[in-house]
Amino acid sequence: MNPLETIKLSIMKASKLILILLLFSVSSFAQTEPNPLHSTPYIEVTGEGELEIVPNEIFLQFTLKERYDGKTKINIEDLEKKMKQHLKVNKFDLSKLSLADADANFVTIKRKNKDVLASKDFIIEVSSTQELADVWEILDEIDAANAHVQRVDHSEMEDFKKEVKIKAIKNAKEKASYLLEAVDEQVGRALFIQERENYSQPFAEKMMIRGVASFQNDELEIADEPAISFKKIKLTYKVFARFAIEGHPVELLNP
To answer: Which interval of the chain is the signal sequence (predicted)?
Structure first.
């Protein structure tokens, strides 16, 4: 082997040795690097955020049923046509009206005389209690049945949820701060955050149509006019948070 080849071989061996040493050093560093969740002194707290929202999406469900007026049968098509005419006259957006079940058309009820009465369930969306009261009156005029508020929501719900989450984490940091100040310490960076969501579905406190009374506070109330009010949508969020205690050196608490 000539001197040049010997030099090349020595360089290759040296390069391999350096690479092995570097890999070993990185591996050792990774194994000994402390986890900040375990090595930093910390404080654990819970934070809360709460927000009440007036719903602007109210979903009213009701049923149209075929019936007899004397010997004359009022069929489902005529009832539906009459309903839509009333809604249009009162400037309601018919695009907000839909079948309660998108896959369903109508159901039938057999009578003893072998006649068949059909019915359809609908949902209409309104944006205020005043609109809801107006719809009550229309449903009363067309003799709709089983009218009730199915659910309520808000068009900007996701934005409100973000707002409450921010309130909760700020509350957690504020709590950690004043607790640490009591022992002459300062709150540092967040090490761990876990959110816990709670959604409170509101309900109609008083709903009345066609003289059918509802219960409120375990007492029967009867009224001639629709008296409808809603509890606000209540969003409550809790977060569990861990904050570092500032100014302390990193020490391995759980080796």
So the answer is: 1-30
β-bridge partners, 69: 72
Secondary structure letter of residue 189 according to DSSP:
E
Tell me, letter by letter, the H, E, C secondary structure of 80-134.
Answer: HHHHHHHHHHCCCCHHHEEECCCCCCCEEEECCCCCEEEEEEEEEEECCHHHHHH
CA–CA separation, 157 and 163 (whole Å): 10
Residues 49-71 have pLDDT tens digits of 999 998 999 999 999 988 888 88
Tell me, what CATH number does 115's domain have? Answer: 3.30.70.120
For strand 97-99 and strand 116-126, is the pairing parallel, antiparallel, or unpaired? antiparallel
Q: Do 117 and 109 form a contact (C-beta atoms < 8 A)?
A: yes
The tokens of 101 are what?
Answer: 């079940």
Spell out a b/e string for 10-33, using b for 16 or more CB atoms within 10 Å of the CB, else e. Answer: eeeeeeeeeeeeeeeeeeeeeeee
Task: Report the pLDDT value the prediction gives residue 44, as an integer from 0 to 100.
Answer: 95
Note whether 50 and 163 are same-domain residues: yes
Helices 76-89, 129-141: axis angle to 10 degrees equals: 140
Q: Give yes or no: residues 44 and 126 share one domain.
A: no
Rounded CA separation 9/14 (Å): 9
What residues make up the domain containing 64?
56-153
Following DSSP, what letter does each residue of 16-76 receive, concatenated? HHHHHHHHHHHHHHHHHSPPHHHHS-EEEEEEEEEEEE---EEEEEEEEE-EEETTEEE-H
What is the number of other CB atoms lying within 10 angstroms of the CB of residue 125? 18
Beta bridge partner(s), residue 239? 47, 195
What whole-number distance in Å separates Cα of residue 66 and Cα of residue 186?
72
Q: What 8-state DSSP symbol labels residue 253?
A: S
